[in-house]
Amino acid sequence: MTADTLPQSAPPVTVWKRVTDLLGLIRFSHTVFALPFALLSALLAWQTAPFHPQQLAGIVLCMVFARSAAMAFNRLVDRDFDAQNPRTAKRHLPAGQLSVGLVTTFTILCSAGFIASTLCFLPNPWPLRLSVPVLLFLLSYSYAKRFTALCHYWLSAALMLSPLAAWIAITGGIAWPPVWLAAVIFFWVGGFDILYATQDAEFDRTQKLHSLPSRLGVQPALRLALASHLITIACLFAFWKSAGLGPLFLAGAVGVSLLLIYEHWLVRPNDLSRVNVAFFNINAVISLGLLAIAALDLWIFPKG
């Protein structure tokens, strides 16, 4: 046997590789779906409440830790289903890239990080008081599709907490602007999660998992997603009105409406090949775009 034919040992796994694998596991880039709405709510709250840098840090840390804990937990509880689904079989846990023990530890650390980050809002006690119930609600989403086809709206209810939580953390109370913004998120996320779930309609049926596409069929589910997004548009204009935002945000709301319609034009019952484009690219533009246009609107047309 020559040196060239000797078996080669696997390269050592570096800390950086573990970090990048964990970020891939939780789809860290998808943080753009909820974080901009929390920041948008905070921008509006700071129009009437004093700005404190630790509040901004607390919002970012809470959002990142909460979402990371929820996603890692979801991958843990779904790992057996993921292994059987051709679309998800190459995910980190079923593929053996990450161990159950490491992901469990990561989930616990992120959960602790979320609770600790609420201390940034003291002396306001509400973020800390609500941290455990909120975290449990976020984690419980992972079991929703085992018993309800409305699991898509459990996810959207989890994400809609972001603008409400940010407003409460800053002001200690609640008002109509974050409520309308939460309604935008509820119907928006519910709609695009239905779109995403069309890819697994047949798999969910065979595994006795619940989703609207598996229960109703792909075409009726797409119609329901469209209805959800039409309600999103109505809530978005109600948010614009209640928040007292100006013409720039109004133009942005019109643009978002057109993007949502385009999203449904991309996905057809007989052609689901562009679901991922509709799911990530367009929705990332919507969330980041609304934050940017709101910040610009508030800068050019300051409230009060």
From TrEMBL:
GO biological process entries: ubiquinone biosynthetic process
Gene Ontology cellular-component terms listed: plasma membrane
Stretches that traverse the bilayer: 25-44, 56-77, 98-120, 126-144, 151-174, 180-199, 220-240, 246-266, 278-301
Keywords: Cell inner membrane, Cell membrane, Membrane, Transferase, Transmembrane, Transmembrane helix, Ubiquinone biosynthesis
Enzyme class: transferase
Subcellular location: Membrane
Main localization category: membrane
Matching Gene3D superfamilies: UbiA prenyltransferase
Signal peptide coordinates: none
The EC number(s) this enzyme carries: 2.5.1.39
Gene Ontology terms for molecular function: 4-hydroxybenzoate polyprenyltransferase activity
Entry cofactors: Mg(2+)
Membrane-topology annotation of the record: Multi-pass membrane protein
PANTHER family referenced in this protein's UniProt entry, alphabetically: 4-HYDROXYBENZOATE POLYPRENYLTRANSFERASE, MITOCHONDRIAL, PRENYLTRANSFERASES
Protein family: Belongs to the UbiA prenyltransferase family.
Name by which UniProt lists this protein: 4-hydroxybenzoate polyprenyltransferase
Organism: Planctomicrobium piriforme
